[in-house]
Amino acid sequence: MRRRRRDRLHLNAEINVVNLIDVMLLLLVIFMITAPMMQGGVDIALPKAEARALDPKDGMVVTLNRAGQILVDETAMTYPQFRAAFRALASQRAGQGVYLRADEQVPYGQVARVLAVMRAAGVGDVGLVTEPEAAP
Predict the structure, then answer these.
(1) Which three-class secondary structure string do you get for the chain?
(2) What is the pLDDT of residues 56-100, one digit of tens each?
(3) Is the pTM of this model over 0.85?
(4) 55 FRET partner, CA 20 to 30 A, in 18, 32, 102, 132?
(5) Residue range 48-132 in CATH 3.40.50.2000
């Protein structure tokens, strides 16, 4: 009689992966929605010019936005702070290159002042970042 009960009980050794797939797809959707929000940046309209493309990810990026704010690699500074700190920042990252991104609405005088600080700090080559012109 005991033998009959054993014959009726079958062990199921399969893993139910449907729940794991549901969780994985839910996490995928969450990451797809939040990933673009996590990308920081400064909203500037770069001037358009017919020039060779530069990759500013290699070195230090100095940005001038419409409000006249100076950002060094996403760190906001005033002009006096920038003047005081740029020499030290440039010496720490020597040989990596310096790129200047300026909004097209920023007056030329502000761009020239920032370039003068860079030259005084001993930075000889400054890459001016622009957007490519639209093809006619």
Answers:
(1) CHHHHHHHCCCCCCCCCHHHHHHHHHHHHHHHHHHHHHCCCCCCCCCEECCCCCCCCCCEEEEECCCCCEEECCEEECHHHHHHHHHHHHHHCCCCCEEEEECCCCCHHHHHHHHHHHHHCCCCCEEECCEECCCC
(2) 566 788 889 888 889 888 888 888 998 988 888 888 876 777 888
(3) no
(4) 32
(5) no
